[in-house]
Please model this.
Amino acid sequence: MIQDHPPLTVLLAAPRGFCAGVERAIQAVEDALERTGKPVYVRHEIVHNNRVVDDLKRKGAIFVDDIAQIPDGAVAIFSAHGVSRAVEREAAGRGLSVLDATCPLVRRVHLEGQRHARSGREVIVIGHRGHVEIEGTTGQIDGTVHVIESVAEALTVPVLNPERIAYITQTTLSVDDTREIIAALKARFPAIQGPDVKTICYATQNRQMAVRVIARRAERIIVCGARNSSNTNRLCEVALNEGRQALLMQDPKDLTLAFIDGAAVIGLTAGASAPEDLVQEALARLAQWRRLTVEEVSVTREDAQFAPVDLSRLVSQLANAS
Model:
């Protein structure tokens, strides 16, 4: 019974959940489904969250891993993570009607890397090998590109000319870990050029900062989001680095009574691709076991907005082709 257990204070991190880039990408798929009148295929998960993807599937979107799986004449949408030039060329060669929902902040990283490559610099990309964003970023840059994940790799990555190198970063990294890697690169290559951690997206940085703040009071921290979401996993790492046990909650059943046993104050947040519904379901589950006091802890206000993905040209092309 709830009355048999002590009350529980929940520190609700703000900001949390969807960022502007995620909202823009989801809206692009919904708009395409509504306005094109054609089958809509999305290359890769539009954002890394099963609940979001499943909702779009119910609305009619079809998710594929490869452009080759998209039939001729269909609408193809590139996810918020971005794609390589090879994928862009393949889509163009297939005559697909393409809608590019790449996050503007990911696109900024592409442009930064391309600028350095045009200047004759080798580009070091700090990020996670195999992550779809890294695959897209490295595939957008001509010339020599190295991917590193750690300080150890920063100290050993082979370069042709230490005077002509630059670095860029994945947008969803741990700010603290990335600073350490950058410091190692700068110590080894004094002439290296790069943006510090400025290309780690604002939403990633804000959500990590919020976790640090609530960790000062919270004994344990729940992070809502998907297990394949980089920014969600980084929030768990931040909590652990602050000495707090962290639980990644992909589904409400992941949250157990044992996790909050003995705790008087816990923190609750969500990755940038996690819907607010998941946060509310976490609160509802906690309320089954304990009497809750919910306190929102705001560290900054996010007012960034991105222009919607423009469908007008795509809709016109489809109309002319029919």
The two ends are 63 Å apart (CA to CA). The longest helix spans residues 20-35. The chain is about 40% helix and 20% strand.
